[in-house]
Specification:
With 341 residues, the chain is of the alpha/beta class. It is built from 14 helices and ten strands. 38% of the residues lie in helices and 10% in strands.
Length: 341
């Protein structure tokens, strides 16, 4: 079996070699989520001119679109034709393999794929669209990065507790986020990554290049993040409420999970100002319900070993002997058998 992250060329090389493929790069952005209508209406439309579309219609669109979007796989299919292997039919198909490792816990995600043994999906509604290949899904819970990197711990121990603003954003938006933190009367610790943000430093703002998020998150009152699964799950596992600014569909889903569980607020990036962010941060810090909800979500991840679950899923798949799927991948309906409680 080939086990990949976001290594899309492996879709073709595994088909050429006739061996199974296990994927995890889709995170929770996988067909069962679309089929159950679990994708949220976006916090902001993809383009300003679409903001007039009612939320209920936008939600239908984002759930219906992935199995129908074929342009996203054109670059792969040019090579697939040259190699004479089966094409990847849609964006939804690009999120799954023969074994799909769904990197979240079902209690947070809102649906229960098999966790004891893989099986075909039979419990999902059918929609008239190109479908991804046959797949087994398994909830594993994500394996968060744990960088062994030092930072000034005394800064997070000073009163009042700080916020932890964005990493994967533009310098301009990080500056806006810090201004919003200051407007809320809070302190901030910022991961500048490759950006030169030293001018932000002061008595209320600390700037580092890269921060070990899994160590910082438990010591802040609120996280200010874009909505990638890594940062969202780190906040959830730390029991830390967050404010998110999702820009892409998978980020919208990740942020929405926090909102649905009462531990987060999601804002559209275009509509965000220093004042609106400051008000959101004051609400999260001022209302105890956000912290209570975050602690509950944290308990759902406690004791879950995502890496071990992923390894077990791979071993189970290989022990099942279901090898033909790797050689005959076809555009068929995705089905699954839910786990018996």
């Amino acid at each position: 079996m080939v086990v990949i992250g976001f290594t899309l060329s492996a879709y073709l090389s595994s088909r050429l070699a006739g061996i199974p493929l296990a994927t995890s790069h889709g995170g929770s952005f996988v067909p069962p989520v679309f089929e159950r209508g679990l994708m949220p209406a976006p916090t902001q439309s993809p383009a300003p001119q679409l903001d007039w579309i009612p939320g209920v219609i936008q939600r239908w669109m984002v759930n219906a679109a992935p199995p129908r979007l074929t342009k996203a796989t054109d670059f792969l299919n040019l090579v697939a034709d040259e190699l004479r292997v089966e094409r990847v039919p849609s964006l939804a198909a690009m999120m799954v393999g023969d074994l799909t490792l769904v990197t979240d816990v079902p209690e947070v995600l809102g649906y229960l794929p098999p966790t004891s043994r893989p099986g075909r999906r039979t419990d999902v509604p059918r929609i008239a669209a190109p479908r991804a290949c046959d797949t087994w899904d398994r909830c594993t819970h994500g394996s968060r990065a744990r960088f062994r990197r030092g930072y000034d711990r005394s800064w997070t121990e000073r009163a009042p507790p700080p916020t932890s603003p964005l990493t994967s954003s533009t310098p301009a938006f990080v500056r806006l986020a810090v201004a919003g933190v200051r407007a809320a009367g809070l302190r901030a610790i910022v991961a500048a990554t490759v950006h030169g943000l030293e001018e932000l430093e002061g008595d209320d703002v600390a700037v580092a290049d890269i921060l070990p998020s899994h160590e910082v998150m438990p010591h802040v009152d609120v996280a200010v993040i874009m909505g990638g699964q890594g940062s969202v799950q780190t906040a959830m596992c730390a029991g830390t409420p967050f404010v998110a600014f999702p820009m892409h569909p998978e980020q919208e889903l990740n942020a929405a999970l926090g909102v649905r569980h009462g531990m987060a607020i999601a804002l559209g990036e275009r509509q965000t100002t220093e004042a609106t962010l400051g008000a959101a941060l004051q609400r999260v810090c001022g209302e105890s319900s956000f912290r209570v909800a975050a602690r509950h979500v944290q308990s759902l991840y406690t004791g879950v070993d995502g890496a071990s679950r992923a390894a077990d899923a791979i071993v189970d798949y290989l022990a099942s002997g279901d090898r033909p799927a790797a050689a005959r991948r076809t555009q068929t309906t995705i089905t699954t058998t839910p786990e018996t409680p």
